[in-house]
Hints:
The protein is of the alpha+beta class.
Amino acid sequence: xxxxxxxxxxxxxxxxxxxxxxxxxxxxxxxxxxxxxxxxxxxxxxxxxxxxxxxxxxxxxxxxxxxxxxxxxxxxxxxxxxxxxxxxxxxxxxxxxxxxxxxxxxxxxxxxxxxxxxxxxxxxxxxxxxxxxxxxxxxxxxxxxxxxxxxxxxxxxxxxxxxxxxxxxxxxxxxxxxxxxxxxxxxxxxxxxxxxxxxxxxxxxxxxxxxxxxxxxxxxxxxxxxxxxxxxxxxxxxxxxxxxxxxxxxxxxxxxxxxxxxxxxxxxxxxxxxxxxxxxxxxxxxxxxxxxxxxxxxxxxxxxxxxxxxxxxxxxxxxxxxxxxxxxxxxxxxxxxxxxxxxxxxxxxxxxxxxxxxxxxxxxxxxxxxxxxxxxxxxxxxxxxxxxxxxxxxxxxxxxxxxxxxxxxxxxxxxxxxxxxxxxxxxxx
Length: 429
C-alpha cells in the first residue's frame, strides 16, 4: 500500500517511479479522488457544526416561547443531521474506492534496481559452481529411469488432475530429506526461528501481504472463504499485523516448511511436463520483519542464506537482480537465484528473495517504536529457502549418470540413513 501523503507531497516522483515499472502515471487520478473524499469530509464537518449550533439554539427558542423559531431550528437540526449522514456515507464510499485504487498499484522500486521492461533487463550479480560436463546427453528429471519410476504423474492426474505428482519410494524420501536439511540449516546455522504455520488463511492475511485483490485468480479459495496459502510468506508475515513492536525486538527472522498452492492461472502452456510447475508444492520459506533502515542489509543476508543451501548441495547457480519491469508486485528489490538444470541446459529459478519495504506493513498496520520515538511501519522481507520440488529436480539432474542412476550430495547422506545414490532401478543404496 502506498502512503497518500507522499503522493500529495510529490506526485511527479510517484509517477516517475511507476514509469520505471513501465506503468502509466496515476497521481492525477489518485489526487482527484483524494480531493473529492477530503471535500466530503470537510463538508460533513461543516454541516455537523451547523447541526450542533442549531441544537443549542432550539432550547433557547423553546424557553422564549418562540414557537416559529423553535420549529425552524428543529427542522434545521433534522436537515443537517440527514446531510451529515449522507456526506459521511459518500466519504466512506470514496475512501473505500481510494483504498482499492492504491491497493492495486505495485510497490515503488528501490533506487539501485536496474531499469528494464522485462527479464532481458535483469542483471547477473553472482555465479557459483562449475556447470557439470557429461560424457552423455543429460536427461531431464522425469526422463531419468531411476526417478521416473517414483515420480507418478499418471496416478496424480487420476486423483487430482494436471500439474500434480505423487512421489514414491526413494524419491519421496529425498524430497523429505531436502526439507529437513533446509530447516536444520536455517535454524542451526542461520539463526531463524522455525514456525509450523497454517496453510489456510483469511482474507485479511492475503490482503495484508498484497496477494489480494490483484492475485486472487492465482490462488485457491475454499467453500467457506478461506484461502490456501501460495507460500508461508502469508501467515509468517501476517503474524505482526496490527501490532506495535519494540525496536529492540527486531529483526524477527522466521522459517517454515509448508505445502503451497497456486492455480498458476497466468502460466498456461508453460512447463507442462515434469514437476517444475505444480499446483501443489512444498517450500521452505524465510521471512524477516525489521526496521526500514536495516531492510537492504537483511535482503543481502537472506540471499546468502538461500545461496548457501545450493552450495552445500553442490548445485551450480547464478544470482540475478530483477529489473523494474520484471519484479513482483509487492517488491522493492528482488534477487532471483537460478539453479543449473543439465536436462534443460539452462538456469531456472529456485529462489526469489524480496524486500518489500513498508509496502505490506502499511496494508496490515504493522508498526514498531524505538525508545522515545513515534510508531512507524516495519519493513518486511520474504524469500524461498528453497523450493523443495525444484531443488529435487536440480539434485537429480546434476547427479545423474549415464545408466540413469543418480549420485546424491554428501550433506543428504545422514538424512537418508547413509544411502548415497539412487540406483537405475529407483532404489536408494
